[in-house]
User: What shape does this take?
Amino acid sequence: MQRPTSGTGTVLGTDLARTGDAGLRELRRRIGFVFQQFHLVGRLTVLENVCTGALGSLRGPRLGLFTYPRAIRERALDGLERVGLAGHAFQRADTLSGGQQQRVAVARSLMQRPELLLADEPVASLDPESSAQIMRLLKDIADQGSLTVLCSLHQVDLALNWADRVIGLRQGRVVMDLTAHDIDRAEVMRLYTEVGADPALLPAAVTPRTGTG
Assistant: This one.
């Protein structure tokens, strides 16, 4: 969404600083995004919210569920089945619990058939049980779909429990980059202690594409 002001940023082989608007639009179609605050349209049905994830591959605006091609609607239903919410397809999105809304958001992101899924603190506003459900879902998606999931988290235990790789950032620099197997909670918490209340330290849980290490 933002071009680098210095240095380089490469995503899926694309140099963001050297790519024009058309190239960036094409790149965004390959990347799914799960927001912290869900960003669903509350008055729309769950199914239509999921269908909006396919807008990047369609031409023109869509007004109403049945203006989406049948194949898109069927794929959206499959996505809801995958996240355990097929029975809520025709329910208003704003009647769901927070954990359910986040699962809808995950299903919406998968409509793009992304190669990379970015999750921006996807459990920050959820209770512990719902948080575990979302992290398990993201892990399963990564494992079953050979999909890279990059998940920013402040909850150390979640990062260690679910990630294959943990990266710690402080003031824009990488201060730790290890497999979750090679570190323990005390080591990560020491990094937090060193920076005190500095919010610049952000562990990122990364589940890499199968076979990429």
In short: Strands lie at 10-11, 14-15, 31-34, 116-120, 148-152, 165-170, 173-179, 204-207.
